[in-house]
Amino acid sequence: MPKAPAPTSPYWKLQRQLTRLNTFLFRRTRGKVGGSFFGGAPVLLLHHVGRKSGQARISPLIYVDDSPRLVVVASKGGVDAHPAWYHNLMAMTATEVELPGGERRRVRPRVAEGAERTRLWERAVAIYKPYAAYATYTERTIPVVVLEPADAT
């Protein structure tokens, strides 16, 4: 299996720069630029805190609108490890997301299981087909994360 690049590699530095650019454009244009991914898949900005660093982070993620819930897929990790944003998010009781148009929502995460996961996975793959291909060459089950509305308190 291919080894994931080290977090300090040029690849990850480029990833961080692209994330900053996407976030800037998303906010500046209220999601008109940076609010969708290749093929038109909608993007939200997920706010989370690094478990080890304690630093605030933002991750642009493709989402499915399952009103009033939002759904994201933890696909961009290593072959056998979930992405850092997933671990950060699951360690939090609640956080905030930004949607195109400037809407902000307070949400709490949970992982979908069973029939719900199957239904939401199919919707995510319909929006962004590369998820299905990615699932065939990773050793892990890709989590489907439901972002439920959280109380404002």
Tell me the layout of helices and strands.
Layout (H helix, E strand, L loop, with lengths): L9 H19 L14 E7 L6 E11 L2 E5 L10 H7 L4 E4 L5 E8 L2 H14 L2 H7 L7 E6 L4
Antiparallel strand pairs: 1-2, 1-4, 2-3, 3-6, 4-5, 5-6
Describe, in short, the structure shown.
The protein has about 150 residues and is an alpha+beta fold.
Overview features:
single chain; 153 residues; alpha+beta; Pnp Oxidase, Chain A; 6-stranded antiparallel barrel; 4 helices
How many β-strand stretches?
6
Number of domains: 1
Element order, helices and strands? Answer: HEEEHEEHHE
Order of strands in the sheet with most strands: 1-2-3-6-5-4
| CATH architecture assignment | Roll
Catalytic activity: oxidized coenzyme F420-(gamma-L-Glu)(n) + a quinol + H(+) = reduced coenzyme F420-(gamma-L-Glu)(n) + a quinone
GO molecular function: coenzyme F420 binding; oxidoreductase activity
Family: Belongs to the F420H(2)-dependent quinone reductase family.
Protein name: Nitroreductase
Structure description:
- The protein has 153 residues and is of the alpha+beta class.
- The chain has a single domain (10-149), classed as Electron Transport, Fmn-binding Protein, Chain A (Pnp Oxidase, Chain A), CATH 2.30.110.
- The chain is 31% helix and 27% strand.
- The chain has helices spanning 10-28, 84-90, 114-127, 130-136, and strands at 43-49, 56-66, 69-73, 95-98, 104-111, 144-149.
- Strands 1-2-3-6-5-4 form a 6-stranded antiparallel beta barrel.
- The radius of gyration is 15 Å and the shape is globular.
- It starts with 9 loop residues before the first helix and ends with a strand.
- The mean pLDDT is 85.
